Amino acid sequence: MLSGKTALVTGSTSGIGQAIATRFAREGCNVVLNGFGDAGEIEAQRAGLAKDHGVKVGYSGADLTKPEAIAEMMDYVASDFGGADILVNNAGVQFVAPIEDFPVAKWDLIIALNLTAAFHTTRLALPGMKEKRWGRILNTGSAHAKVASPFKSAYVTAKHGLAGLTKVTALEGAKHGVRCNLICPGYVHTPLVDGQIADTAKARGLTREQVIEDVILEAQPTKEFVTVEQIAGFAAFLCSPDADQINGAELSIDGGWTAE
Ligand code: NAD
Fold it and tell me: How far does the signal peptide extend, from start to end residue (predicted)?
């Protein structure tokens, strides 16, 4: 379905981004991976995707908190892949603390990675998309782009900001064949959430199972995690012709969390 196109998926060495990159490769799309991790494992992921799906797969280890590293990554995608037809702004981290104790450096990091990085990749990808008169930008939001939880000030602020960037990008791209949408997952069992489970269990003296049942899935009416494959399938749908008129939308995939 997406053969001949290239998708840049940030934060795709793990979790949701990895599943999205895999799904796009399965759709015949060339893929550029980005994120941190063990060099050997990343190379195995890169080479495996290329071999399994017969597509070209690249990798950039850019630290997306650094605008100059983002510019280098975008240059690489332009020179080696002819630019990103699909841009998935997905890399993100979490940190949990009351506002008065929230480390300033953590605030700066989360705003830089979860919000500002998407501005930089978008501003650098848009000219090529407009020229080709086709582009799809998917921002990984969160239920926390719509509602808040205590102790997640930086994350909730960044995700609400990403909702704003999504809508502006959608309006500016609309007449140029570019679409931009925000995917808003509820809880997905990835390393990011695993860290939260471990921290909460320690802080509250609970077992992992108690944290999952009573804390994490408390917010999610289905009482089930969203899977990374479900998000990846949704991302692929948003790049299909059936989704051509979906633009500037905040799309929940959260088991009903934000319906409450
Ligand atoms: P994850 O920890 O599994 O993956 C995060 C990815 O981001 C990794 O590839 C990591 O290497 C990369 N990354 C981290 N810092 C980076 C940096 N400075 N520069 C470049 N890459 C960096 O997390 P995940 O759960 O898959 O989260 C992916 C996205 O989904 C995030 O934006 C997160 O906020 C969002 N999200 C997650 C959940 C959930 O429940 N897991 C729910 C809603 C939204």
Answer: none
Task: Assess if residue 136 is contained within a domain.
Answer: yes
* ipTM rounded to 2 decimals: 0.99
Residue 155 bears catalytic tag? yes
Range of the domain at 200: 189-225
Question: Residues lining ligand 1, judged by CB closer than 6 Å?
Answer: 11-17, 34-37, 63-65, 90-93, 113-114, 140, 142, 185, 187-188, 190-193
What is the per-residue pLDDT across 226-251, written as a single tens digit (0 to 9) for each? 999 999 999 999 999 999 999 999 99
Tally the domains of the chain: 2
What does the pLDDT look like over 6-51, one tens digit per residue? 999 999 999 999 999 999 999 999 999 999 999 999 999 999 999 9
Is there a single domain that holds both residue 239 and residue 140?
A: yes
How distant, in Å, are the alpha carbons of 14, 59, 232 from that of 37? 8, 12, 21
Among 10, 36, 196, the mutation site with the greatest number of ligand 1 atoms within 8 A of its Cβ is 36
pTM strictly above 0.90: yes
- CB atoms near residue 198 (< 10 Å): 12
Residues near 99 by Cβ (< 8 Å), separated by ≥ 6? 153
Cα separation, 228 vs 86, in Å, equals 19
Asked whether residue 161 falls in the same domain as residue 197, the answer is no
How far apart are the C-alpha atoms of 250 and 182, rounded to whole Å?
5
Q: Do 204 and 107 share a structural domain?
A: no
- pLDDT tens for each residue of 124-150: 999 999 999 999 999 999 999 999 999
